[in-house]
Amino acid sequence: MRSKKIALIAALLSLVVSEHALAGDRLVGVHSAQVLSQSMPWIAQEAGLFKKYDIDFHLVFISSSPVATAAMLGGDAEVQVTGAIGNVRAYVQGSTDLVFIGGIKNFMTHNILAKPEIRRPEDLKGKTIGVGRIGSNTHYFTIQALRRVGLDAARDVQTIQTGGGPETLAALVAGKVEAASLVAPGYAGAIAQGFRIVVNGAELRIPYGATTLVTLRSLVAKRGPVIGRFMRAMAEAAKILQTDKAFVYKVLGKYMRITDTRVLDSSYNSEIPALERRLELQDVALQASLDEIAPLDARAKAIKPAALVDRRYLADMEKSGFFDKLWGDKK
User: Fold this and answer.
1) Rounded to 5 degrees, what are φ and ψ at 156?
2) The model scores a pTM over 0.90
3) Structural domains in the chain plus CATH codes
4) With the CA atoms of 29, 32, 33 and 38 taken in that order, what torsion angle do they form, in degrees rounded to the nearest 10?
5) I need a labelling partner for 317 at 20 to 30 A (CA). Which of 73, 102, 155, 193 fits?
6) In whole angstroms, what is the distance from residue 300 CA to residue 184 CA?
């Protein structure tokens, strides 16, 4: 089933590529979740930043970090805005052409929500918890969060895969699961419908490459300047995300069909403090993925986070004064 899905995605991406083959600065990207922290390509598109940087950019949604990674390794995408885990796992398995070039969120801000009668983390024992996909950020958060409150996700709860954030919220509302692991804006939507936060991820601050920017070393060698312009577009989009709430709400309304101000306010206010202003990727966030993989693949123990990262674009924006000019201050 997964191989058929990858083939279908590859065909879709190939169609996008072929339709724009004459565009010298064409760039195909993938993102793996329809969430606030992965909204920067939408913001860049709506703000005209890709046009400003002479990039013919096309974004494809793939609701799985591992499948998004497979699409890139198959040559069907050139940049990713996605969680780190799929890329780190592929790197450990030998796909060392993958490289992280920036970060957007370095710790998790998910929450576990449930119906009102489930009041304490201990009350989750024996319950069903919905996550997007097994191995996804929501699944990892559930494992780590429950561990911090003395529960074992493999033994004490039943984890159910739903497919993605909107599907998890729908399963919770429909009563198909008793609790759900959600990130903004999904958990804000759950709160608006009467569900309560049982485990608050923002308080736990679990280190993780929750949203990262990824490409290929071979592509940097061939099309380095284009990737550099893409990174500048992302940096400007990050500034808009942090400073122009009205514009961000308009973008989210268009791409996610969310117009409820209560949901948008809750999502925005909780997520913004967790997002990187200068696209920095912290080693501790990647180390978390390596530590997650190590028990099943010993090769992860020998890899240091620095080996997975190329900071040339971040360094250039710092050295050139781009970040200082963009933010009007010093770091």
Assistant:
1) -95, -15
2) no
3) 2-107+207-327 (3.40.190.10), 111-204 (3.40.190.10)
4) -40
5) 73
6) 30
The answer to whether the peptide bond before residue 185 is cis (omega within 30 degrees of 0) is yes
What six digits make up the tokens of 287? 């180390």
Over 88-125, what HEC string results? HHHHHCCCCCEEEEEEEEEECCCEEEECCCCCCHHHHC
Q: Which of 100, 96, 105, 152 is closest to 124 using CA atoms? A: 152
Token pair belonging to 291: 């530590």
Tokens of 234: 């992302």
Q: Tens of pLDDT along the chain (331 residues)? A: 555 555 555 555 555 444 444 444 899 999 988 889 999 999 999 999 999 999 999 999 987 778 889 999 999 999 999 999 899 999 999 999 999 999 999 999 999 999 999 999 999 999 999 998 888 888 989 999 999 989 999 999 999 999 888 899 999 999 999 999 998 887 888 888 899 999 998 889 999 998 999 999 999 999 999 999 999 999 999 999 999 999 999 999 999 998 889 889 988 988 999 999 999 999 999 999 999 999 999 999 999 999 999 999 999 999 999 999 999 975 4
| Tokens of residue 315, six digits | 């360094």
Q: In whole angstroms, give the CA distance from residue 294 to residue 288.
A: 10
Residue that the structure tokens 């933010």 belong to: 327
Please report, in angstroms and rounded to a whole number, the separation of the first and last CA atoms in the chain: 47
3-state secondary structure of 197: strand
Q: How far apart are CA 122 and CA 125, in angstroms?
A: 6
Token digits of residue 237: 């989009």
